[in-house]
Amino acid sequence: MDIATGLGLLAGAVVLVTLILMGGELGMFLDVHAAIVIFGGAFAATLIRFPLTSIFHGLPVGLKYAFTLRRTTQRELVDEIASLAEIARKQGPIGLERVEVDDPFLAKGVRFVADGYDSDFIRDNLERDRDNFITHLDEGQKIYRAIGDCAPAFGMVGTLIGMVQMFANMTDPSKLGPYMAVALLATFYGAAVANLFCLPIADKLQLRLHDEDINRTLIIDGILMIRDAKSPTLVREMLLAYLPEKHRHGEAELAAA
Q1: Are the CB atoms for 137 and 61 separated by under 8 Å?
Q2: Is pLDDT of 257 > 50?
Q3: Of the candidates 35, 45, 55, 225, which lies 20 to 30 Å from 171 by C-alpha distance?
Q4: Where are the domains of the chain?
Q5: Is the predicted pLDDT of residue 146 greater than 60, yes or no?
């Protein structure tokens, strides 16, 4: 689980609840009309922007990978692939069958090498798998970003509706307070939903997308070099290009040793 995502949402919720309780009761900030404007309006606008299948697929996929996708660094992947290359050199491709690999994508590539598939098949299959995964993540982040973009706008719509109702009932002072509360709560809901949940989730998915694109491309190159029986030292040196500049020198010295 991504601890940062959970801690961030929890901290944001604690801050909001604390501020609310310092000046009143939590029930003051609960309003059905404002919730309908924000969630109903944002969902309706998102339906117009995206196909229905994309929404029902992108929402859970985005939420899943924002919370559960483990970030594997390029350094870890280079070390693991170099170790696999060492095993393949000493025991042959068949020796990879007994190796346990945590990363499902890397495990799939190792299985292809162990089964003796040719390089073109391995490349095509893994690249297709990578592209499909990246497409799903991109789909999820676009949907969350779309909701985050339109939620504040519908908060303003709710505010305008509340103000119209308030001015239409100026002769009845007892209704002015509730209508003003609805107007302000709609803006509050829209800002909170967008800036505490949807937009941060979209940004997190964008980072995941970038990391996974690099990691899976690195894995594909490493698997193909193992398939072509390249030496572990050469495999490590070739994959160092995926590491940030400041981390390459230490890895290069390790490879030379």
Answers
A1: yes
A2: no
A3: 35
A4: 31-75+118-256
A5: yes
Furthest CA-CA distance within the chain = 89
Residue 187 CB-density burial (10 A; 0-12 exposed, 13-18 middle, 19+ buried): buried
Place of tokens 């698997």: 223
Across residues 64-72, what is the average pLDDT? 74
C-beta of residue 232 within 8 angstroms of C-beta of residue 251: no
Among 124-133, 192-201, 215-224, 239-248, the least confident range: 239-248
Distance CA 87, CA 229 (A): 11
Is there a contact between 47 and 55 (Cβ–Cβ < 8 Å)?
yes
Q: State the Cα–Cα distance between residues 21 and 16, nearest whole angstrom.
A: 9
The strand ranges marked E within the chain are none
DSSP state of 73: -
Question: Which contacts qualify for 45-48: CB closer than 8 Å, 24 or more apart?
Answer: 45/146, 45/150, 45/154, 46/143, 46/146, 46/147, 46/150
What are the backbone dihedrals phi and psi of residue 72, each rounded to the nearest 5 degrees, phi first? Answer: -100, 125
**pLDDT value of residue 128:** 96
| CB atoms closer than 10 angstroms to residue 229 | 12
Q: 151-186, pLDDT tens digit by residue? A: 999 999 988 888 888 888 788 777 777 778 778 898
Q: At what angle do helices 199-227 and 232-239 cross, to 10 degrees?
A: 150
Tokens of 2: 């991504």
Average pLDDT of the chain, as a whole number? 86
Mean of pLDDT values over 70-98: 87
